[in-house]
Amino acid sequence: MPRYIGIVDALGLESFIPYEKAKNQMVGISWRARANTQRNAVAYDIELNELTEKVIKKLIKKEKMILAGEIITRLIDEVKKTKHTEINRSLREVKEARGWL
């Protein structure tokens, strides 16, 4: 299954980077998310099935970043916490903050 890392926040999907291209950047991504707490920013590390990957890529191409971010956020059960758990906030917190729970 394809694996991606990036940041999702109140404005939608900020970044969607293949894990193999950015696995050494997770600390920096986590710090960027932490610096944007007013936007409920979260660094994520997620595996997607191929259909979900295609849908998110189409949404990005159509510049529908809020919808793409909502999909990533709603996939909380598939999110794998990184080794930087003290920096990352769970997507569950974002869902609660946005009133999805």
* Proportion of residues in extended strands: 15-25%
Considering DSSP H and I runs of 4 or more, what fraction of the residues is helical?
40-55%
Number of helices: 5
- The total domain count is 1
Which structural class should the secondary elements be placed in?
alpha+beta
Helix/strand order: EEEHHEHHH
- Say how many strands there are: 4
Task: Tell me the span between the first and last alpha carbons.
Answer: 27 Å
Radius of gyration: 12 Å
User: What sort of overall outline do the alpha carbons produce when their principal axes are compared?
Assistant: globular
* Main β-sheet description: 4 strands, antiparallel
Mean pLDDT metric: 79
Sequence stretches where pLDDT stays below 50 over 5 or more residues: 80-88
Strand and helix layout:
Elements: E1 3-9, E2 12-13, E3 17-18, H1 19-22, H2 26-35, E4 42-47, H3 50-61, H4 65-74, H5 91-97
Antiparallel strand pairs: 1-2, 1-3, 1-4
Helix pairs in contact: 3-4
Description:
- The chain is of the alpha+beta class and 101 residues long.
- It has one domain (3-97).
- The protein has helices at residues 19-22, 26-35, 50-61, 65-74, 91-97, and strands at 3-9, 12-13, 17-18, 42-47.
- Strands 1, 2, 3 and 4 form a four-stranded antiparallel sheet that branches.
- Helix 3 (50-61) runs antiparallel to helix 4.
- The longest helix is centred in the middle third of the chain and has 12 residues, at 50-61.
- It is globular, with a radius of gyration of 12 Å.
- The chain starts with a strand and ends with a helix.
- Mean pLDDT is 79; it is low at 80-88.
